[in-house]
Design a protein that fits this description.
Layout (H helix, E strand, L loop, with lengths): L4 H44 L4 H21 L28 E2 L4 E2 L3 H5 L6
Antiparallel strand pairs: 1-2
Helix pairs in contact: 1-2
Length: 123
């Protein structure tokens, strides 16, 4: 009935290990999803000449989610990642995303929807 602090700490660490195992599986799935997103983004860029802004944003937030799992698993934080916390939003970066709105095979400048979506002009 009265638990000793040592036993409570032991139960806490056992529960954390279980959560770490669950997030290890989630990590593996998210890693596959990120790999697929990389391939789709590459194909999109080859076809349209510029990366998709929505895929860039999702890839950024998925990368941050993986970082949250890493911080939880390495005991950097006690905050469990999504779905226990909010899904990470796109990071605000000063660097501009890569754009290549010139189609190489035709040598003509095109107005790609993804170039307009990220707020850049064609080269």
């Amino acid at each position: 009935m009265n638990e000793s602090p040592k036993q409570a700490q032991r139960e806490s660490i056992i529960l954390r290990v279980l959560w770490m195992l669950v997030f290890l599986l989630v990590w593996q799935l998210a890693e596959l999803l990120l790999g697929g997103l990389v391939v789709v983004q590459l194909v999109y860029r080859l076809i349209y000449g510029a990366p998709s802004a929505s895929l860039m944003n999702f890839g950024d937030s998925l990368s941050q989610f993986l970082a949250q799992i890493g911080r939880f698993g390495s005991f950097h934080t006690d905050q469990k990642p999504w779905p226990f916390a909010d899904w990470p939003t796109r990071a605000r970066r000063k660097a501009k995303p890569p754009t290549a709105c010139r189609l190489r095979h035709t040598r003509r400048v095109t107005k790609s929807p993804s170039c307009e979506a990220v707020g850049t002009a064609p080269r």
